[in-house]
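Query structure, 263 tokens:
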């Protein structure tokens, strides 16, 4: 069984600690657990909100290194997102984006895929509302770049699911164009996705079942896991029990590891 992990904002995501703990645990049962890493493939992303929606090369490198460090701690290999984009993809999507007019931004499509619907929440994260104003030059400038990045993410995610063909993907958040597009393309390719979403009101991470309309609330929200012991044999019984519970909820074959400290 192949499992992919997609946490494009690394430690910035509240869900990341739990997800990389789970990835570390899962590799004892499934040898093909892989991290898909966003490696600066796009000119903007929702993480730019932390720097007033500006982008510099340092921010991308910081995020890339953070993602790599988390995968290294979990002991899972990395596949870079940019490797699933070809030079033709870059040039064709550039021409596609330049041909758009503000009046048809919301109807922009790549084949049968409606692009604006995949990045609507990212637009809202930037401006505070979901409907762009065609006469607003700030909206036009940002949204053209956002539509271009989303279109490229569609192609990269589609090719990733076709080539790596994960049986299950674990993704964080779901409220930005990267994870929303990844989830959409996974579904289109017939692949299962388990969404991990931080719920502030509940102070818990909601784990969405990949096929059924049910959720598991996990109150374990670890921070700074890179300072924890990565060897699962040293984990306390309580942590192992939580990992086994999540596996069971996701209908993953396996069970609880027989660890000396957990017996």
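Result returned for the query:
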């Amino acid at each position: 069984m192949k499992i992919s992990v997609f946490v494009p904002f690394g430690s910035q995501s509240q869900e990341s600690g739990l997800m990389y703990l789970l990835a570390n645990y899962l590799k004892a049962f499934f040898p093909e657990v892989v991290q898909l890493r966003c490696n600066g493939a796009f000119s903007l992303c929702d993480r730019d909100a932390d720097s007033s929606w500006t982008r510099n090369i340092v921010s991308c490198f910081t995020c890339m290194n953070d993602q790599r460090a988390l995968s290294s701690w979990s002991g899972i290999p990395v596949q870079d997102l940019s490797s699933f984009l070809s030079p033709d993809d870059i040039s064709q999507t550039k021409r596609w984006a330049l041909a758009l007019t503000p009046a048809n931004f919301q109807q922009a499509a790549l084949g049968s895929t409606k692009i604006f619907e995949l990045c609507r929440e990212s637009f809202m994260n930037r401006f505070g509302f979901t409907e762009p104003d065609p006469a607003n030059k700030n909206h036009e400038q940002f949204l053209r770049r956002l539509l271009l990045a989303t279109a490229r993410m569609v192609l990269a995610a589609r090719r990733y699911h076709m080539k790596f063909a994960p049986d299950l993907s674990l993704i964080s958040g779901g409220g930005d164009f990267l994870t929303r597009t990844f989830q959409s393309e996974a579904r289109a390719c017939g692949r299962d996705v388990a969404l991990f979403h931080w719920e502030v009101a509940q102070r818990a991470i909601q784990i969405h079942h990949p096929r059924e309309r049910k959720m598991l609330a996990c109150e374990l929200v670890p921070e700074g896991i890179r300072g924890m012991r990565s060897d699962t044999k040293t984990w306390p019984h309580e942590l192992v029990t939580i990992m086994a519970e999540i596996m069971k909820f996701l209908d993953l074959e396996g069970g609880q590891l027989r660890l000396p400290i957990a017996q």
